[in-house]
Amino acid sequence: MKGTLKVIVAEARNLKDEDLVGKSDPYVKLILDENNIQTTQTKKNNLNPVYNEQFSFNVDGQKKLEIKVYDKDTVGDDDLIGEEKIKLSDISSKKYVDTWVKLTKGKLGFRSKGEVHLILEFIN
Length: 124
Fold this sequence. Notes:
Layout: E1 2-13, E2 26-33, E3 36-39, E4 50-60, E5 64-71, E6 79-87, H1 88-94, E7 96-104, E8 112-123
């Protein structure tokens, strides 16, 4: 599969709070592969952040887009709030997808960690 994937990270809601003091400072990381990673701005003290940020990826054989939401920490590593993967074949067959992606965490992925609103468009 080859083409351009446009992604709008519109907003997130009901994110799990990972901070002991205050609220999480979330940002969204979009990963097509190890060489194609893009990140939103960090939103301070917000469990329902609005981003409205657009990204573009050149797709050349990749199969999925990983969505990871982190809590930015001033000390130590950032905490993973939740994640999900989207099959690119699901997007390319429809060309345009406007969806809320449910985030999970852990191997079994049962626990909800919030949602991210994405608008995705695949252009051949």
